[in-house]
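Sequence design from tokenized structure. All designs in this work follow the same two-part layout: the structure record, then the generated sequence. An example of the structure record is given first.
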């Protein structure tokens, strides 16, 4: 068993200011930026003459009518969306007592390193996906019924040989970005700032809900609940500060949503109100 050297938290006012600034920079380049845009978007939706329930949010839209050019755009979008993940990991490993491998072990992103346990991570991931997936569908259906959720089109890519692989990559990108930044990175940095577990869980969950506001009020609350479950699990004796089960769960949920939507016949979508 590898023993990790403890990473000293930010203790001086200057260190805390620097850590706080770093957090805002990382969020400004990633999920925080998405949250601000989503807030403006929901204000625009609520103030529009068309009722919220009659509006549509499209995920994974085509960027070009030319298939290969569309593929290039999709891959570039996925690549640059993952850059903030690398930045967060780089910053976490930047302290004198931290290393790249040690940081990966600390947050449970250690597949490929000695002592990794992919089987258990995958099992927990499937369990979390099942626990979140069914209530998530219920939240969406209830939101549509109450008129507080827009119609979400999970995929609008043109049908091509690369459609399903790209949707799987997009799902993995979402899992890596949201779970590493909103949970693992935020936990490390809020702990550096002396926050309690409760405040971390609340902050992480509200952050997750914020960047889903563009889908309506229902998805905001649904994703806050997902955030509560995921951040609590991460800090629990079962989660053991391992982010990979969360990445697996999130990726599975998005693969089912993206690929399932893309492959579902149009008449089925109409019948289900999708």
């Amino acid at each position: 068993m590898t023993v990790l050297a403890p990473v000293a938290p930010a203790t001086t006012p200057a260190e805390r200011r620097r850590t706080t600034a770093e957090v805002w920079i990382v969020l400004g380049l990633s999920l925080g930026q998405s949250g601000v845009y989503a807030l403006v978007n929901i204000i625009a939706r609520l103030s529009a003459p068309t009722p919220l329930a009659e509006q549509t949010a499209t995920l994974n839209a085509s960027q070009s009518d030319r298939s290969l050019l569309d593929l290039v755009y999709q891959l570039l979008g996925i690549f640059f969306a993952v850059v903030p993940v690398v930045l967060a990991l780089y910053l976490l490993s930047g302290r004198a007592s931290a290393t790249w491998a040690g940081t990966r072990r600390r947050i449970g992103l250690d597949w490929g390193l000695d002592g990794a346990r992919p089987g258990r991570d995958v099992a927990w991931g499937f369990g979390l996906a099942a626990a979140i997936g069914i209530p998530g569908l219920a939240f969406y259906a209830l939101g549509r019924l109450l008129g507080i959720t827009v119609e979400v089109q999970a995929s609008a890519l043109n049908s091509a040989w690369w459609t399903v692989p790209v949707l799987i990559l997009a799902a993995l990108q979402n899992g890596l970005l949201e779970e590493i930044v909103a949970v693992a990175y935020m936990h490390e940095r809020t702990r550096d700032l002396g926050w309690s577990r409760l405040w971390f869980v609340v902050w992480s969950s509200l952050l997750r809900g914020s960047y889903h506001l563009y889908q309506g009020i229902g998805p905001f609350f649904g994703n806050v609940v997902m955030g509560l479950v995921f951040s609590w699990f991460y800090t629990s004796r079962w989660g053991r500060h391992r982010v990979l089960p969360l990445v697996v769960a999130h990726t599975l949920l998005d693969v089912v949503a993206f690929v399932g939507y893309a492959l579902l016949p149009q008449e089925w979508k109409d019948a289900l109100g999708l």
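Confidence is low (pLDDT under 50) at residues 1-5. We note this feature because it recurs in several other targets discussed in the main text.
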